[in-house]
Design brief:
It comes from Lactiplantibacillus mudanjiangensis. With 469 residues, the protein is an alpha+beta fold. Helices cover 49% and strands 16% of the residues. The longest helix is centred in the N-terminal third of the chain and has 33 residues, at 134-166.
């Protein structure tokens, strides 16, 4: 088909990071989904899961956000002390207390120091024969302070650049691939839990076909869930039933699905769902869910007989900006005879308080009911045998454990090639038995029919080994 011509390695590398490839993989994935629906090979369920793939970066090239914050604070403290020395030497004016030091401010101060050095140079030339020369001593000290000022200003710019590289939610990045984040990966030869630069690959599957994918820099699956659902919905790849494991179960994700995906059924268990069914959990007197609740007067009674009355509504906002609503209950301090109840006090003799998140309890009850129902429970039971084998084929058969390009945009394009390869492998595996039976009757007819399926996917060519099969 190619007249014995072999494409060069450079040609392949240019192709796998080209914009045309991104368009080709997106269109092919969409056309494949349509083709599979027409053939009845997929249904209305999206199984979602993720895995960490190593980045093409050195594993010891880490930069940590906490260290950047600590170094930046130390650098600013030294800058404040240095500016104080310059003020005492009457080189610059007083910097107001509490004012924020910026690189632009330092550039202006460095300009003032340079003007002062030029004036000192002229003074030294005019007093060359004076020994010892006070102007020379003053110039020497001022040059030293200017050198330190330049170094601190450069450090401040470096820290600002690092903060911009981290972005809003990341806590680390690699020096050799700024888009890669250090994560815990399953490929850990030293068995010490060492963090390595990687990307979080999220996929949606149906009958072991990948119907959608995306790359994330966040190692936590919980944070990727709503963004990935938006991506699938925008590409019309989100099915009516959404299935994922407990790593995606959180109040923020449940609330997003409740508000934005009303027509979809979400089968995502929460982290403590299995534990709550255990005997140990149900017999734990510290769990509020095991206490007696009286809806009419809105109060709890714990196993010790202490009554907790409603006190106030509280709000808590996490670092991601998500706000949770709580109802606070306070223990009754005195009994009917106005005697102090010791069980109502903490070890430090403060009143005991509990907080109840009604929205979280509602979402938990909803998921328990869905996963306990025979129909939806059987759908969730298919999760492991639908999405996990895809990752197994990717890492075991294709040996794809590490990206070979750097940068988020290029990594997405390479992931698209892998996803399409997995889909072609699955499609050929399904069609091989039928093809073999039909070839015994009419080999030519069978070959054309099989190729038409790929032309329907929008591909402009097929490989020679495929045609030969």
């Amino acid at each position: 088909m190619i007249a014995d011509q072999v494409p060069s390695y450079r040609t392949i590398c240019r192709f796998r990071i080209s914009d045309e490839l991104a368009t080709l993989t997106d269109e092919s994935l969409g056309n494949l989904t349509v083709f599979l629906e027409q053939q009845g090979l997929i249904n209305d369920v999206s199984f979602i899961d993720g895995t960490k793939i190593l980045a093409d970066a050195n594993k010891y090239s880490f930069v940590w956000k906490k260290n950047t914050i600590r170094f930046d604070k130390s650098n600013r403290d030294q800058l404040v002390a240095l500016l104080g020395e310059l003020h005492e030497a009457k080189v610059i004016g007083e910097v107001p207390a509490g004012s924020e030091v910026t690189p632009e401010m330092l550039d202006a101060i460095i300009g003032v120091v340079e003007d002062k050095l030029i004036a000192l140079d002229e003074t030294v030339k005019a007093t060359e024969k004076v020994s010892p020369n006070p102007a020379k001593q003053q110039r020497r000290k001022l040059k030293s302070k200017k050198s330190k000022l330049d170094e601190r200003c450069e450090k401040m710019r470096e820290h600002e650049q690092q903060q911009a590289t981290y972005g809003k939610w990341r806590n680390s990045y690699s020096k050799t691939d700024h888009d890669a984040t250090f994560m815990r990966v399953k490929e850990d030869p030293m068995q010490n839990g060492q963090l390595k630069p990687a990307y979080n690959l999220q996929i949606a599957t149906n009958n072991q076909f990948v119907t959608g994918f995306d790359i994330f820099q966040n190692p936590t699956d919980t944070r990727t869930f709503p963004i990935f659902l938006k991506h699938l919905k925008a590409h019309q790849a989100l099915e009516k039933i959404i299935v994922a494991d407990a790593g995606y179960g959180s109040e923020s994700n449940y609330r997003y699905c409740e508000d934005e995906l009303e027509k979809h059924t979400v089968l995502v268990p929460y982290g403590t769902m299995l534990k709550e069914n255990s005997r140990k959990w149900k017999s734990d007197d510290r769990k509020v869910m095991n206490w007696d609740y009286y809806d009419k007067d809105d109060y709890f009674i714990d196993p010790k007989g202490v009554r907790f009355n409603f006190n106030a509504y509280r709000e808590r906002t996490d670092k991601y900006g998500f706000t949770r609503q709580f109802k606070e209950y306070v223990a009754e301090k005195y009994d009917e005879n106005h005697q102090l109840i010791p069980a109502a006090l903490t070890a430090k003799e403060n009143l005991r308080r509990i907080s109840v998140n009604e929205a979280w309890e509602y979402f938990k009850a909803k998921e328990r009911d869905l996963l306990s129902a025979p129909e939806t429970g059987s759908i969730y039971a298919q999760r492991k045998i639908d999405v996990e084998p895809v990752f197994g084929r990717m890492k075991a058969y294709l040996h794809f454990n590490r990206f070979s390009v750097r940068g988020l945009d290029k990594v997405k394009k390479e992931a698209g090639i892998v996803v399409m390869a997995l889909n072609i492998l699955k499609l050929t595996a399904i069609g091989r038995p039928t093809q073999q039976k039909a070839m015994n009757k009419n080999p030519r007819k069978t070959k054309i029919r099989f190729c038409v399926g790929f032309y329907d996917l929008g591909a402009s060519y097929v490989t020679a080994p495929f045609l030969a099969s």
